[in-house]
Amino acid sequence: MNVALADRAQRAAKPPQHLADLSEPERDSWAESLGLPRMRARQTARHYFGKLERTASCMTDLPAAGRDELVATLLPPLLTRARQISADGGRTVKTLYHLTGGAAVETVLMAYPDRITLCVSSQAGCGMGCPFCATGKLGLVRNLSAAEILEQVRLAARACQGGIFGGQKRLTNVVFMGMGEPLANYKALTRAIAGIAGQGGSGFGLSARNVTVSTCGLVEPMDRLAGEGRPVRLALSLHAPDDPARDGLVPINRRYGVERTLAAAYRYYEATGRRVSIEYALIRDINDQAWRATQLAAKLCQYGTGWVHVNPIPLNPVPGSIWTASRPSVQEEFLRRLAAAGLSVTLRDTRGADIDGACGQLAAKEVVRTNG
Ligand code: SF4
After folding, report:
1. Domain locations in the chain?
2. Model's pTM, two decimal places?
3. pLDDT tens per residue across span 228-270
4. Does domain 17-74 have CATH number 1.10.150?
5. What is the distance between the alpha carbons of residues 333 and 117, in angstroms, rounded to a whole number?
6. 3-state secondary structure of 339
7. Beta strand 344-345 with 308-314: parallel, antiparallel or unpaired?
8. Residue among 119, 122, 135, 212 whose CB has most ligand 1 atoms within 8 A, to mutate
9. CATH of domain 80-371
């Protein structure tokens, strides 16, 4: 095996099983299989989810004899912090973690006046191959386990509790908009959502309504998620209203097409009652023409205007890429046309543009450093 292949194989190494990978009954069975009473798994889960704790010495309700081994088994270390940088006057904090095997993932924590939002990664790299995206250039290294996703949330919630944003101490929102296509890692995604929104000893207690799953438009998993009975918000990265442009920007479109993708997004709205966000990265001279805004409005409005909210976002360019952000006047006209059609539209801010804000940029640099 050559060096690059060996390096990739090592990065793809699977993480150890963790308590947060399992449902409550599965945790009970795991404890029993280790020769422990079920209540040990429940006590440990209460520390992990309720107190955001994984240090054995803090879990004084567990018997001292064997406590370290118990915690090391049920809550093995999953993420190692490699780098952390902040921007926007300290209101945006980006963290690079190494996983078991050494693959890198990122989170971005953002404080707003009324909420704190964490952007999590669901895969190391991504196999969807969108050409304007730093993560897409890495290819898929591997899926994250549910516990690896939940550990990103726990560490961020602890940082908030510890005062990383001063008096604002509660993590309120989680968005799956970091590295990876979350619907391509469906089982871990839904297990992670259960852990984020679960109450008491079974989750971090956030509202499922404050969780957003972003997808490039995998139709069957979108329908499956609609049937899960959890009111999470769906964000569809559309980026073009027509197949010729979208086929180039979001290659999975060649399988589904824009019409089928939008129909699935509308079914999601019908099933959950949650307004769908349409994400649209405005890329100069590629998808930002005024006629495309008119076409986008027409395609969305075929289902009415109340089901959807459009979020155009100026492209955060990947270094060395030919793609760049739209001119401000073009951007304005694009938004004006959508609003004129009666659609609700907000230009999304580009948090962390000065810290490699586009998803995957820190990790992409990490790969360049490692391989170079
Ligand atoms: S834009 Fe999203 S789906 Fe496309 S390659 Fe990047 S991470 Fe993957």
Report:
1. 17-74, 80-371
2. 0.93
3. 999 999 999 999 999 999 999 999 999 999 999 999 999 999 9
4. yes
5. 29
6. helix
7. parallel
8. 135
9. 3.20.20.70
